UniProtKB/TrEMBL annotation:
Domain of life from the UniProt record: Bacteria
Identification of the protein by name: Aldehyde dehydrogenase (NADP(+))
Organism of this sequence: Duganella aceris
InterPro entries with a match to the protein in the record: Ald_DH/histidinol_DH, Ald_DH_C, Ald_DH_N, Aldehyde_DH_dom, Aldehyde_DH_Superfamily, ALDH_KGSADH
Highest classification ranks of the organism: Bacteria, Pseudomonadati, Pseudomonadota, Betaproteobacteria, Burkholderiales
Aldehyde dehydrogenase domain segment(s): 19-465
Keywords: Oxidoreductase
Key word Oxidoreductase present: yes
Length: 524
């Protein structure tokens, strides 16, 4: 398979008519071949219309057929072999083990949603049978979920596979029966085309309408905004900057028919170091923290960008050990010159800040990011919002609080986060219990004695949280719960059996159903 630089619309290779985009190899610091051409508005219109036309056929497929489609995408991604791995490595600067792991995760996500479809609970079938003798009589009511319609997905820069073309947003939207029009990220267009072709091939092999998936290229905001504006698009999935997410939310809200935007944006993932845990294992916690901070050159949405503890000798032990582990860290290629530039600006601002002391600053290099660790006081942190802004990369800020009340104030004043982590021993449980209700209000996932990087793909995972970690804290973008973002309920009142969707009929295929408020497995 060769990379052509084309968009994929209606199952065909289509040359964009707009400006050329070239991928950039951040390790070699050079532009790559071939050129990818920005699509025009007519091509966006075509992709969205085809998605709309394919929607009814696609959502009417049996759960089994959609499951097989997802598994076929997984097989086609694996069949790309080293061609894909090497292109991702070249476009991202990320090492082979990370890319192979991310590919496994991407394929695993597709299989997880295939299993969810077969298990059937996603339909959320509820049946309240008619009560004709009741006064007043109750009608027959039956509910199931259906897909929202075509979804616009924006690939993320920092996970070229797992949060991109066939990533979690695409997998959950397709599982929900929603066609996807995907905007490739301009920093990995070749990766995007290869994975896009794997999806197109899976559509062919499964005999499904070509409009179920399209891949478009573009850079400079206009293409993404036009896509979100298109009337056929009914929801948006996005992972990226706060600025980009907010811009797309504004576009979606200003449409004649506003639509939901599920944007994952910025999070600094605080660690709260409880006093006894710190006293018992400051150095061990510091080692784990340093490892988590530099993972993926800090370009992970769950990167631990904030550490909160009580000022004193124990916190000093932690800070010294962490600084020692980080100070010698190598400068590694960042995903793009833009991300490297943002990182450089962020650490320069902190290192020059009057209320911030630099604990470690490994030698930096152009286009690269090396670890940085800073410390400030609880009072300074509380007084200056700028200190809590995300620095995307391997940098973190330690906040030394004067007492637990100040630590709780910091937790209460935080913006919404994807995660919060407690380092906690048995003797800390009382203090942790007081912090817990505050954290529940602020974050989507609370961890004990671990580190936030490494997001398990599982049913009970929440990768989401209150604004600005996401635009809608009621959902998750990882795990089976992600499908609910692209579904809505339809209730059928007194419909004859012959008109009911198959899953809702008396002898239907619902495996899990809610009958009269009771959750049962069919036939039990
Ligand atoms: P980005 O600039 O938000 O871009 C993500 C996608 O959204 C791209 O396809 C981009 O396309 C589009 N986009 C951005 N702004 C837009 C706008 N105003 N209107 C329409 N489309 C828009 O994110 P990025 O390139 O991945 O990285 C930039 C910064 O985002 C990083 O330095 C970091 O601070 C942050 N980031 C955070 C996370 C996280 O998980 N917390 C992940 C990735 C990035 P265009 O080509 O049209 O710009």
């Amino acid at each position: 398979m060769i990379i052509t630089g084309d968009a994929l619309i209606g199952g065909q290779s289509v040359k964009g008519t707009g400006a050329a985009i070239r991928a950039y190899n951040p390790t070699r610091q050079e532009l790559m071949e071939p050129e990818f051409f920005t699509v025009d508005f007519a091509q966006i219109d075509q992709a969205c219309r085809l998605a709309d036309e394919a929607f009814d056929t696609f959502r009417a497929l049996s759960d089994e057929k959609r499951a097989v489609f997802l598994e076929t995408i997984a097989e086609q991604i694996m069949a790309l072999g080293d061609l894909l791995v090497e292109r991702v490595m070249a476009e991202s600067g990320l090492p082979r083990p990370r890319i192979e792991g991310e590919r496994g995760r991407t394929v695993g996500q597709l299989k997880l949603f295939a299993n969810l479809l077969r298990e059937g609970s996603w339909n959320d079938v509820r049946i309240d049978k008619a009560l004709p003798d009741r006064t007043p009589p109750r009608p027959d009511l039956r509910l199931r979920m259906i897909g929202l319609g075509p979804v616009a997905v924006f690939a993320a820069s920092n996970f070229p596979l797992a949060f991109s073309v066939a990533g979690g947003d695409t997998a959950s939207a397709l599982a929900a029966g929603c066609p996807v029009v995907l905007k490739a990220h301009p920093s990995h267009p070749g990766t995007s085309e290869l994975v896009g072709r794997a999806i197109v091939k899976a559509l062919e092999l499964c005999g499904l309408p070509a409009g179920v998936f399209a891949l478009i290229n573009g850079s400079g905001n206009a293409i993404g905004q036009e896509l979100v504006r298109h009337p056929a698009i009914k929801a948006v999935g996005f992972t990226g900057s706060r600025f980009g997410g907010l811009a797309l939310m504004a576009v979606a809200a200003a449409r004649p028919e506003p639509i939901p935007v599920y944007a994952e944006m910025s999070s600094i993932n605080p660690l709260f170091l409880m006093q006894h845990a710190l006293a018992a294992r400051a150095e061990e916690i510091a080692a784990g923290f340093a490892g988590s901070l530099v993972m993926g050159v800090g370009q992970l949405c769950t990167n631990p960008g904030l550490v909160v503890g009580l000022a004193g000798p124990e916190l000093d032990r932690f800070a010294n050990a962490a600084a020692q582990a980080l100070a010698g860290g190598a400068a590694c290629a960042m995903l793009s010159p833009g991300i490297a530039g943002n990182f450089k600006r962020g650490i320069t601002q902190l290192s020059e800040h009057a209320d911030v002391k630099t604990l470690a600053l490994a030698p930096q290099a152009e286009g690269k990011g090396a670890p940085a660790l800073f410390v400030t006081s609880g009072a300074a942190f509380l007084a200056q919002h700028a200190l809590s802004e995300e620095i995307f990369g391997p940098a973190s800020l330690v906040v030394a609080c004067k007492d637990m009340a100040e630590m709780r104030r910091i937790a209460a004043g935080m913006e919404g986060q994807l995660t919060a982590t407690l380092q906690v021993d048995d003797a800390d449980l009382e203090a942790a219990r007081e912090l817990l209700p505050v954290l529940e209000r602020k974050v989507g996932r609370i961890l004990a004695n671990g580190f936030p990087t490494g997001v398990e793909v599982a049913s009970a995972m929440v990768h989401g949280g209150p604004f600005p970690s996401t635009s809608d804290g009621r959902s998750t973008s990882v795990g089976t719960g992600a499908i609910t973002r692209f579904l809505r309920p339809v209730s059928y009142q007194n419909l004859p059996q012959a008109l009911l969707p198959e899953v809702l009929r008396d002898n239907g295929t619902a495996t899990w159903l809610r009958r009269e408020g009771e959750l049962t497995r069919n036939g039990q």
